[in-house]
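Protein 1 of 2
SEQ + STRUCT:
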Amino acid sequence: MKFKLDEIINCTGAQILYQKDTLGEFEISTDTRKLEKGNIYLPLRGENYDGHNFIDKALEIGAKGYFTQDKFKVNKKADFILYVENSLVAYLKLANYIRNKINPIVIAITGSSGKTTTKEMLFSVLSTTYKTHKTYLNHNNEIGLCQTMFTMPDDCEAVVVEMGMRNLGEIELLSSYCKPDVGIITNIGSAHVERLGNLKNIAIAKCEIAAGLKKEGVFISPDSSKIKDNLNYVGEKIFTKYDDVKNVIISVSHSEFTYENTNYVLNVEGDYNIENALLVIEAAKKLNISTQNIQKGLLNYKPIEKRWEVSEIKGLTFINDSYNANPESMKAVLKTFLSVYKPPLVLVLGNMGELGKDEIAYHKEIGEFLCSYQGVKLLTVGNLAKYILRNSTLEGVEFETNFECAKYILDNIEKGSTILLKASRAMKFEEIIEMVGRL
């Protein structure tokens, strides 16, 4: 979107430090690698980076002007210079301005796991009826929110915004600037417990999604006491129950179920995907999407990269679900994999991150969970994942590196095996698949 300078000043409260030519309309760029001639450069400042270091480069590329948090540092090669106390806040104010100007239906989604899956499902359903936009991949922080709004088409009718957090107050900030019409929490789990200390604080943080939720809007989540006890919202609330689901059939790449006398089909397996679908169904109904289009949208949903991503290499079938992992999502995926797929089966499990002082206990818990299964090979990678194997009854091998694991798979796993990869993203388990293909 292009802005006139007076729009920018009115929106952000920026102060003009220097000007010689302010005529025209301007696009805003926060990245000199993508900046085009005539843009305004908005340098962001974080813990480990400072975009102010690239102001000179932005002007060399052809930036018309720039924002700055440094009031007494001026480069007069610019046509104008705008001072703001905080460039990220200015970015958020501009994003909010775009949100209000285009005025789409805004659906915000958060949760300990399943955020991106639910976002993609809902996008698939909404797209049957509305011109729909969404958060790219998992770009779910303040910058990601701004990018979502800045890339929204002028004729957008609905936008699905994913909201992540690492500390208290972050989702409240996101919600306050995007003003959702619908707020969704997928679940409350132990992801980020290292930072927030306990599950209650995690629940409080996720329930901050209601901070900006419109009073005439709707809040949707599973029927969870953790959510209900910490939610502060006066508008309509819908709580879904898996017990209301009937006629469940789950097989490879297929889930079928009946909900409120309507049959639905997903091209992915797992109870947890059905639970996500219930949230989508309720949101879609509130947005007046027909039953037929809800069914169509759910059927058309496909997982994105590293989420139940299936590939076949050298006679082996890999299922890569290593986009992220916490104890709850790990158990859900293992339950689905071990109940749906036929032997020979191999589990490749890695470290789960950000679990705090009880991280070893959480990994032992996964091992204990696996004790009820037999005839499965268990491979672990990482200093924490080894406790999964050591506390299970499955036969297996511990590895320190992805390379060692990939080499073992090639040399020892029989052709025709199906191999599940599950770990936190930092483990880079996609390397295992790449190495098996190269070695």
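Protein 2 of 2
SEQ + STRUCT:
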Amino acid sequence: MGKENGALSGIKVLSFAQLAQGNAGVEYLADLGADVIKIERPGKGAWERSWSGLDTYIKGESVFFLSLNRNQRSMTLNLKEDEGKQIVYRLVARSDVLVENYRPGVMDRLGLGYERLSEINPRLIYASASGYGSDGPYRDKAGQDLLAQSLSGLASVTGKEGDLPTPAGAAIIDIHSGALIAMGILAALFYREKTGKGQKIEVNLLQSAIDLQKEAIVYYLNGGGERSIRRSKSGIGAPFYEAPHGTYATRDGYIAISLTPLKKLGEVLGLNELLEKYDQKDAFSKRDEIKELIQAVIKEKTTDEWLQLLERHDVWCAKVYTYADLVTDPQVQHNHVIKEVKRDDIGNFKVIDFPIRLSESPATIRKPPPKLGEHTEQILRELGYESEIETMKQKGIV
């Protein structure tokens, strides 16, 4: 485990985050050195403790939870009780940042909205994440990654013509939205250094999904029109790309070939038909037939044979990996992307490291994801409670 000397060392974060969106944002801050207190329900804990993709658990602990909650302390609090709220108020008074991604209005109903808490601590940076925003016609709709991919148009432009709209194979909107949460908080911390003022930050899944498509949507808005959203029959990488951009089946696997001038690719592949029949202006208008022509050649050799040939001629290409390939890749191993963490009750497990290198204040994994309520008493004592702790337990406050 690393030392507590990160860029955000000394910054105190109060987390009411749940699921992937909020927790991804908080974990970035925690990796950078912030002291994060995760507020959870007594007895049950955060929702992500009770669900895990593929039903994957390690000795009863959700792998979903383990993937997004390291470097944090867990405190259980009953927020429906006044005594629980009073503890939150004490925490807010000494916190720099609060992060929440309940549905809009929940924190206000609990007496924990921005207006109330900024009265207690005017320097507080209050980050609120939601599905669609804190107001507007979709305010009360359920927000979730698949729904955001669908409403943003992303699923409609992924896959081949005739396929169902195709969502990405990972919760990319949740994680991007989490990164935007962290970005907003860092900007607000810098602003506070200059002015002494806290502020409220809002991030939502829908806008995060649109942000991921800023190149594609700007094409649509500025002359691309229907061409920007028309998927190819052959599997070109995205509606706005030309041939050969896409994936191809080799004799023993798959390879991706990026944008390459047709003349150059025809010469490298020895594909005379590509040289004689098509000009570069055909790369978009005839992209399906060009891609199919290239595919007929690519299937004749192995992936490694093509990689050696294409890379020798500086054609942008890559093997299409499975996760099994990914975790043994020499560059992934060199970059130390995968780290092993140990928690006493469940042993060792693997996680993905923080994705940014900082030469002077590196992000670190200092502690494993916490057990439910593991740090409740410790935090209460930091707040000045002592004799009251047992009574709070008996009353279900903590």
